[in-house]
Amino acid sequence: LNGIERIKTDIDKDKLSLEIGKILEKYDINKSKIESTAICSVVPKTEQILAEVLKDLKLDIFYIRADIKLNFNIDIPNPDIVGADLIAGCAAGVDMGKLPCIIFDVGTAMTACVLDENRNFRTCFITPGPKLSFHTLAKNCFLLPQIDLGEKLSDFPNNTEDCMRSGVILSAAYFIDGLSDRFDEIFSKKVHTIVTGGLSSIIINQCKRETILKEELLLDGIYLLFILNSK
User: Fold this and answer.
1) What is the pLDDT of residues 111-167, one digit of tens each?
2) Which whole-number Å values give the CA distances from 119 to 72, 93, 111, 135, 174, in the listed order?
3) What is the DSSP letter of 84?
4) What residues contact residue 14 under an 8 Å CB cut-off, 6+ apart?
5) Which contacts qualify for 64-69: CB closer than 8 Å, 24 or more apart?
6) CA-to-CA distance for 130 and 107, rounded, in angstroms?
7) Which one, of 84, 122, 116, 111, lies nearest residue 221 by Cα?
8) CA-CA distance, 152 to 164, in Å (whole number)?
9) Rounded to whole angstroms, how far apart are CA atoms 182 and 63?
10) Cα separation of 31 and 46, whole Å?
11) Stretch (H or E) spanning 86
């Protein structure tokens, strides 16, 4: 892995092309040496624009989706509804050999994918992520401000910002602990709790349950699926 770069999703084709050019220059990557690219997106408009830019660069594109070769089974009536990000995360989670497991991705939305010991994707839970929760509170509650996530929590918060921060972060941590405990009972065995996403390291500090932090889980899954489908 040479590096990770973040680009806003609300960007037009020209600006995106410019940003990709800057990234290639930053890492001294010759376009002619790129064998292929992979897209793992749940934002259709951005996916379309990115695909157009990559095609203009004469680059092959591999798409992460439910109908490619996978290292697990999607055991639901309509597999196509499973997002590309969830598929990549599950592929990497299965490859870790930690089954059964729940893979929590802490992003704009917080997702929890459940895989049983036979490599079957059984279900997914979706709830607002911490940043979205902060934004929603500030937008809809007149007296509540926009705040930063921060990393330190007080057991007895005594101002508005700290009360919001503690409430949102602890709610996310309790969601991880509680759902994992629930599936311990459902599967009659302990499930492995795998956590990824940009805010994962802050949240798991408040979890009582043993967790496995894999910040690059989705990238691992994208690469794994690319290799699997290249054979």
Assistant:
1) 999 999 999 999 999 999 988 888 888 888 877 777 676 667 878 988 888 888 889
2) 5, 10, 18, 36, 26
3) H
4) none
5) 64/38, 64/39, 64/40, 64/88, 64/221, 64/222, 64/225, 68/225, 68/229, 69/225, 69/228, 69/229
6) 8
7) 84
8) 12
9) 34
10) 21
11) helix 84-95
In angstroms, the CA 8 to CA 46 distance is 9
2 to 30, 58, 59, 114, 219: CA distances (angstroms): 14, 22, 19, 31, 12
SS3 144: coil
Q: For residue 90, which of 204, 221, 214, 229 has the smallest C-alpha distance?
A: 221
Alpha-carbon gap, residue 197 to 194, rounded angstroms: 11
114, 102 contact by CB (below 8 A): yes
Residues 166-207 pLDDT 10s:
898 999 999 999 999 999 999 999 999 999 998 898 899 999
Instruction: Retrieve residue 91's tokens.
Output: 């592929």
- The structure's pTM equals 0.91
**Whole-number Cα distances in Å, 47 to 17, 40, 41, 63, 86:** 13, 8, 6, 10, 16
Q: Which residues lie below 8 Å from residue 37, measured CB to CB, with a gap of 6+? A: 54, 59, 60, 61, 62
Single out the residue of 72, 124, 111, 122 nearest to residue 95, CA to CA.
72
**H/E segment holding residue 26:** helix 13-26
Among residues 158, 72, 50, the alpha carbon closest in space to that of 119 is found at 72
- Give the chain's end-to-end CA distance (angstroms, integer): 21
